[in-house]
Write a structure and sequence with these properties.
Elements (H helix, E strand, L loop, with lengths): L2 E5 L4 H12 L4 E5 L10 H6 L7 E4 L2 E4 L1 H11 L14 H36 L5 H22 L12 H4 L1 H12 L11 H11 L2 H7 L3
Parallel strand pairs: 1-2
Antiparallel strand pairs: 1-3, 3-4
Helix pairs in contact: 1-3, 1-9, 4-5, 4-7, 5-8
This protein binds glutathione.
């Protein structure tokens, strides 16, 4: 039985999982959850994903949620096919550097990008509220500071965990792409301010599996 991905084509976390499944050349069935009808808050859905969030996966009865955990599971289960997106699990230091890179994305990127998207997009689109310009400016400044850290790392190596691309890099695509697409923020492509971040961003954004999921899962 092929792995089932329950999600929404509009949800970037769903795209994150679909992207990694394609990178790993894992066939899957996509089951659309109608978030506008609040299907992800139904008692049936909550049995699988107790936080009522999209997406989750079902691999022959093994239910998993949280996209980063799903992607790590997929990359480990199908380690020997598709793009190698994990470090050698026998290499203690490579694994530690990979974990460090995962934490960078989760703590230095994801929460700040969410703050920015909240002000630039969600408030107007979903809450009918004006953006708080002071909050937005503070978050933009925070992101700029974090990108200096990224620049320092990426001036010494090709990717966040070393010279090989890993899940830690690709986890940035889901929310990072929204900065330019919906918030018209081009910081990740700013070759003058962050030349190595821009080089890295152009590299990971042009991966064929990522371009493929942009056109539909
Ligand atoms: N940390 C979760 C985040 C998933 C997420 O935020 N999903 C959104 C859809 S894009 C959602 O379901 N939001 C509804 C909610 O949080 O109640 C993951 O990576 O799986």
């Amino acid at each position: 039985m092929v792995l089932k991905l329950f999600g929404s084509p509009q949800s970037k976390p769903t795209l994150r999982v679909a992207h990694i499944l394609k990178e790993k050349q894992v066939p899957f069935e996509f089951i659309v959850i109608d978030s506008s009808a609040k299907e992800h808050k139904s008692p049936e859905y909550l049995k699988k994903q107790p936080f009522g969030q999209i997406p989750y996966t079902d691999d022959d009865g093994f239910i998993l949620f949280e996209t980063r955990a799903i992607c790590k599971y997929v990359a480990a289960k199908w380690r020997d096919q598709g793009s190698p997106l994990l470090p050698d699990h026998n290499d203690l230091k490579a694994t530690a550097l990979f974990d460090q890179a995962l934490s960078i994305e989760y703590s230095n990127f994801d929460p700040i990008v969410i703050e920015i998207l909240m002000e630039k997009m969600y408030k107007a689109k979903f809450l009918g509220q004006e953006p708080d310009q002071a909050k937005l400016a503070a978050s933009m400044e925070k992101l700029g500071g974090k990108l200096e850290g990224y620049e320092a790392i990426l001036s010494k190596q090709k990717y966040l965990a070393g010279d090989n691309v890993t899940l830690a890099d690709l986890f940035h695509l889901a929310l990072g792409s929204m900065l330019a697409e919906v918030a018209d923020i081009q910081l990740l492509s700013d070759k003058t301010k962050y030349p190595n971040v821009a080089r890295w961003w152009a590299d990971i954004s042009s991966r064929s599996a990522w371009l493929e999921v942009q056109n539909g899962i």
